[in-house]
Amino acid sequence: MLIHSLLICFSLLLFHLISCLRYKELILENLILKTQLAAYKRKYKVFPTTPWERCKLVMLSYLGPNWKSSLILVTPDTLISWRKKKWKLFWNLLSSSKKLGRPMIQWDLIKLTRRIAKQNPIWGATKIHGTMIKLGFIISEKSVSKYMKTLQRSPNTRKRLAWKNFYALHADSMIVSDLFTVFSYNFREIYKVIFFMDLETRQILHFDITAKTSTRWVRKVIKVALRKKDPKNISYVLTDNDTLFGKRFSRYLERLGIKHKKTAVRSPWQNGYAERFVKTCKEEFLDYFIPLNEYHLRVRLEEFMQFYNHNRTHLALQKDTPVSSPILHKPRDGNYKLHSQPVLGGLYHTYSWKKAA
């Protein structure tokens, strides 16, 4: 049954093709006339043909032998001149696609050149070329310089060092700080929260809350934060341009042998790690919490900081916690069950293995 239906379909298709071939000249003549009619029906009766209309007429003239008799708005000489122009354009495109000069090197080698140039922004073409020779690649220094030009690099080598590289160079000797605002339940009181973060471990060294800010209060907070990390190992304190971090605060840090660095105006991305903690604190805690007073906010925020430092994992730390904690494997001896301890009223939980009763 299936073979019979396929034969019927094939025979119908063959009959349709034969009938089309029989009336091929008539179909082509109709197409040429319709193309000219569409051009004639345009708003402006002057006939400056568009490239698309010329292309259609030229292509249709190749398909039928009696195309000259079907032309009304265009003379056969004009159409023949269009044919010649199309062939000239075609061969010009083919010849212009061939690039002069030495052939391009392998694409993998180009990607490697750009990768090394991107990873070492201070280096020029000479040092990158020397590195590639040491890796066993055969390439000229001119080729390295050619494919480095595609990268947007500053001509001044001192400006090529990204802010992220600066962070990585000084992470073990830098503390970052920022402030954020929390409103009370009736919006009558505004609390300012300040914190100091160790950039290397992402640990919140200390924080404090007050309704009345002053430089003396900031100095008091950083004094407690420095006790948790040896001041001799701290070289920089990075803050924004808040008035609390003014000249008096800078002079206080200078007496301790610490340099005070400020971000550029309207450039919060330069203090990105502190800004990210503010976002984390708001999204993971303050959006679900309404403080009744300053004491209520202090107690709950201290609980969140404890959870943040000892239990919350970080991608930048290879999914470790700021205060590194060991992996708790289930003991093999005895019957142990996973015990959960609620944090912040059950908003989060901490887990440990405890022996079943």
Automatic annotation (TrEMBL):
SUPFAM superfamilies: Ribonuclease H-like. Residues 151-330 form the Integrase catalytic domain. InterPro entries: Integrase_cat-core, RNaseH-like_sf, RNaseH_sf, Transposase_IS3/IS150/IS904. Coiled coil: none annotated. Gene3D superfamilies: Ribonuclease H-like superfamily/Ribonuclease H. One of its GO terms (biological process) is DNA integration. PROSITE patterns: INTEGRASE (PS50994). This is Transposase. One of its GO terms (molecular function) is nucleic acid binding. It comes from the Bacteria.
